[in-house]
Amino acid sequence: MTLGFAYVIGFVLATTTALLTLLAANELPIWMWLAIFVPVLSAVQQRRGKGVPTWAGTLIGGLAIVYAAVTLQAMGVDALLPASSGALVGIFLARIVTRRTLKHDLQALLVSLLVVIAGAGMNNGVSYGASFVAYAVSIVWALVTRQLVEGAEREAALPFGAKLEVTLARRDIVTPVFFGASAMVSLVVLLSTTVLFVLFPRVGLGSFRLGQQGGLPSAVSLRGAPMARGTGAVVARIKGLSYTQFEQGLYLRAATYDRMNRDGFARNEGLVVTGGTQVARMAHRADARLYEVFMQPVADNRLLVLGPVQSITLLSGGGVNPLFATRQATIRPNGEVDAVTSAPIRYAVAGPTMLSAAEAGALAEQALDREALAPWLTVPENLDPRIAELAATLTASATTSSAKAAALRAHFGRGFEYTLDLPNGRAGDPLTSFLFEDKRGHCEYFATALASLLRIAGVPARVVGGFQGGLWDDEGQVAVFTADNAHAWVEWYAEGIGWVLDDATPATDRASTRLSGFGAMLEKMRRGWDDYVLDYGLTQQFEMFTQVRHGMRSLPVELPRLADKKTLAGIAACCVTVVAVAWLWQRRRRIDKRRVHPLAVVLQKSVSQVVGQPLAATRTLRDGVGEATRLLGEEHEMSHALHMALAVYERQRFGLVRGGLDDAPRAIRALRSARRRVSSGRPSAR
Amino acid sequence: MRLITLWRRIWRRLWRNAPRQLRFTRAGRVVVGLALATGFAAINTGNNLLFLAWGLVLSGIVVSGVLSELALRGLSVDALLPKDARARLPFALPVRLANGAKRFAALGLEVRARLIAPNGKPEIAAAPFVLRLSAGAAHEALARANLEQRGKYTVDEIVVETMYPFGFFVKARPFKRIPPPAFWVAPRAVDVRALAVEVAGRRGSAAANVPGTGEDYFAMRLFRTGDDLRRIKWRRSAKAGKWLVAENEAIAGHDVIIELVIGRRAESGDVELAIATAGSLAEALLERGTRVGLRGPGTMVPSDLGAGQAWNILRALAAMDPQQPNLGGVVGRSTTLVAVCAGDAAVHADHIVRVGGADEEQVA
């Protein structure tokens, strides 16, 4: 491989993998994926000698900054990370397409490092890990070869220096040995990265936060995109459940939205903290269970739970520095659980799952305490009167809360359609538009509409945000929730029963899935990534050091136990193999060091075998072969093989003819087989 | 303040004598900045992926240090001192670079020789980039410079630098020898072709005391095959009973002694120009086959012929101290004295060449 080509390959790979670390987060618009073709196209253009004008780079960079400004304007400061990442990608591409000198290339490579660092904030999936490893390997390659190309450029600038094109076309620099050495350097870089990652104490200060914070918004709105967009990234895993329980449908509660307005439901923080203790009861099944949750910090200091919580224990993670973080979770009257979640967290929960509306229908209800439940019965004053008429019509024959809920839920089964499009995002009254005109929407539409109708019908109701459905991993016996499972549903209140879970969103979108094949493999990788990388913290560091300490202490005790015959035989075999490999390697090195032609070595051995003594240092191989032939006779097979090998050797060694290199291995093989035959079958010529 | 100055001095001395010297490139500064920023972000956010990225940046820095050390550790350097260095002419100091490492090739090497001029001013001679020096291989790099002054230069140190592998840092390994090797730089060359023609044309001639093609009788000798028969002295031959031929004496041009005379008020530039003129004139005359000698402040080189004599004279001029008094001596009749004067020195000579303020002057 020529030096120039090796460098281009390294540069393209490094920049492409850097882009992948960021784009794989799926936080940027899908069209930005086109960016990964830019390094290759730029390299092709450069090879053709056609440069991109500077104004094109300025345009790309400018557009990227405009994109960032527009994103910030539209989505607020929450979108700071995606917006700045988008701008960074644009600037990166601008540098790549307009690069003309090695200095520009170096700038692009340094920006690629910045892109990878930005990717760490945006993308915490296993895709980051894969891209990161590829990037680490390719950046080493790119930087090393760039350094050599820069040297070639400097040499070309000298009066008697070799021309740049000549040096770039040299094939003796990027040899297999160089390739192997670079691979070793990459390996060393990766290993030392791992060592630093493992050993650096996680005693953070927590002055600012970064990453997937506040994945659940402060309101469920009928005017925007779904509150939590699906990116496929795992947000939670639950251990301790059976598949049967999973199949019944799991709802991971995160936040409740109690205050109704014309656009949907919003959070009422005051109510969450102080109010509602009289009406805090949540309808639940009888089977209280203990389950363990691993959760990404997606719910803004809120823990995901399956229902009412009896007790909760924080196991690990959660804070930048677990030593300083409050190791307690607070259970709120509305069933929410608050804890510091600035980092992935793992906790154990004891408690039952929520009772579904169908199950609650069989239970007896009591009269509502309307005064205590007033916050959940309030509706905006200027609601379209048709909504009230609809609620009255639908619940005309229902007397209990569960009957009213069933009637209203049934209404959404007739002609309503689930879609992620925004059919009435610009409508003056989106709720009315959804109920009477479009009849299409995502889960937030259905939840808002059902909760609104319930309140109008006199049933206290609220919207709950969280995750629903999930994937079941048989191997790990784990229920996996991804961002795709983000969902909004309804809880309504029945006196004597409590808050009951209800969901009007068509069920086709919420089917539970069992992982298999590639999905299961991917989940296994993700789980490993989450357990050993994302969730790695001070606790794990303590555990690791403790284990190492215990291991060192117990070594004198454990070692004799291992000393059975099989183990000893295994150790002996390993030692013999290592010694043999080392001996062969050393031998090869000695030969290489002397720069002796391999055919000469075999010839020398063969002559020594025939003559019965080593070839004297003052004699040539031709002398040795002559003597061997005299002893064996001209017609002997060995003589023939020796002459053939000598001819090949002399042609290659002295003949200035580089062709016919394939003859050497053939001659070696022929000579060796002749030697074997001589030593085994026939008597020695002596 | 005094403490700070002292500390700076100590630090500079320690730095200069350190076995390795390190300095950042622009990319290196950016990488270190990124490392600091990423570390700050990682510690503050607790984001493990930032720790991972931080680990990558730090590993890059550490591995860069280790690999550059591997590239430099096995090297040995030897300067092959030049014998023909001239001031103000491109000068090359051959530096033999050998990689004694068993396995690792040294990549991306730059060689710089730090030379100390006679006035104590450092000069840098830089060699071309060595792309690759395989394990066990040697390479001769020519460190080039343009030296301003004549005199004795010492090779203070030879520094081998590498930015390998990533170009974040320039790591330098200085090689020093005690005592530092030294070489002489001859005075610069000036154009004296016209002057040399004139001096050679007017230097006069005398019998050379060897047989030749002159007109005066020199000696008799036995006839040898091939001698012109007309040269046989018949009467002497008859008397001696052998064939004898007469030989004439050769005529040779006068030796030239170049005397360098430095006036009391001569400016240093004029002195150097006078020295350079003397050297160049000697070279030009020697090239024309003239025997040339030199007299000057504290210096005397007897007349002789050939390229060796040219370097004797240039070497003497390189070492010449203009403050020394001129060495006296009698100039024979068969010698032409050419005085090269700087300043207002009063001198008697066959030719007087004044350099500096006045034009060249010749006195018969």
Descriptive overview:
The complex is a heterodimer of chains A (686) and B (364). Chain A is an alpha+beta fold and 686 residues long. About 1% of the residues of chain A have low confidence. In chain A, strands 8-11-6-2-16-15-19 form a seven-stranded mixed β-sheet. Chain A has 22 helices and 19 strands. Chain B is built from seven helices and 18 strands. In chain B, β14, α6 and β15 form a beta-alpha-beta unit. In chain B, α2 packs antiparallel against α3, α4 packs across α6 and α6 runs antiparallel to α7. Chain B is elongated, with a radius of gyration of 32 Å. Classes of the chains: A alpha+beta (686), B alpha+beta (364). At the A-B interface, α5, α6 and α8 of A face α2 and α3 of B.
- Average per-residue pLDDT of chain A, rounded, comes to 82
Q: Describe the biggest sheet of chain B?
A: 8 strands, mixed
Q: What kind of sheet is the major sheet of chain A?
A: 7 strands, mixed
Report the span from N to C terminus of chain B. 66 Å
Q: Largest inter-chain interface?
A: A-B, 62 and 39 residues
Radius of gyration of chain B: 32 Å
Rg of chain A, alpha carbons: 37 Å
* SSE ordering of chain B: HEHHEEEEEEEEEEHEHEEHEEHEE
Point out poorly predicted stretches of chain B.
358-364
Low-confidence stretches of chain A: 210-214
Helix percentage range of chain A: 40-55%
How is the topology of this model organized?
The complex is a heterodimer of chains A (686) and B (364).
Chain A: H1 3-23, H2 38-48, H3 54-75, H4 80-97, H5 102-122, H6 126-157, H7 164-168, H8 176-199, E1 219-221, E2 234-239, H9 243-247, E3 251-257, E4 259-261, E5 264-266, H10 269-273, E6 289-295, E7 302-303, E8 311-317, E9 330-331, E10 337-338, E11 345-351, H11 357-360, H12 385-394, H13 401-412, E12 417-418, H14 430-438, E13 440-441, H15 443-456, E14 461-468, E15 471-473, E16 478-482, E17 486-494, E18 498-502, E19 513-514, H16 517-534, H17 538-562, H18 565-594, H19 598-611, H20 621-632, H21 637-654, H22 663-680
Parallel strand pairs in A: 12-13, 15-19
Antiparallel strand pairs in A: 1-5, 2-6, 2-16, 3-14, 4-5, 6-11, 7-10, 8-11, 9-10, 14-17, 15-16, 17-18
Chain B: H1 2-17, E1 21-24, H2 26-45, H3 48-73, E2 75-79, E3 85-86, E4 90-99, E5 106-116, E6 122-126, E7 130-133, E8 138-146, E9 151-162, E10 169-175, E11 182-186, H4 193-201, E12 205-222, H5 234-240, E13 244-253, E14 255-262, H6 268-287, E15 292-296, E16 299-304, H7 306-318, E17 335-342, E18 351-355
Parallel strand pairs in B: 3-11, 14-15, 14-17, 17-18
Antiparallel strand pairs in B: 1-10, 2-4, 4-8, 5-6, 5-7, 5-9, 9-10, 9-11, 12-13, 15-16
